[in-house]
């Protein structure tokens, strides 16, 4: 069964954004993509069109659709770096 196009997905996306703060994803690659899907929650069918982004000299990039932040491991924005 599929959702009808439009409102239900949008309502669910808004719900998801309200219920969950933006994620931080650590990556080894300067070039990342985001489609809003997640491996963790059951929301993999939601999300947004896939977009590719380049991590710049700040060491991170944020998705303009869902605010997920991609942090380069070991880069300037990696708070976990030793
Ligand atoms: Zn995204």
Automatic annotation (TrEMBL):
InterPro entries: Znf_CHCC
Domain Zinc finger CHCC-type intervals: 30-70
Short name of one Pfam family: zf-CHCC
Protein name as catalogued: Zinc finger CHCC-type domain-containing protein
Organism name: Novosphingobium indicum
Native organism taxonomy: Bacteria, Pseudomonadati, Pseudomonadota, Alphaproteobacteria, Sphingomonadales
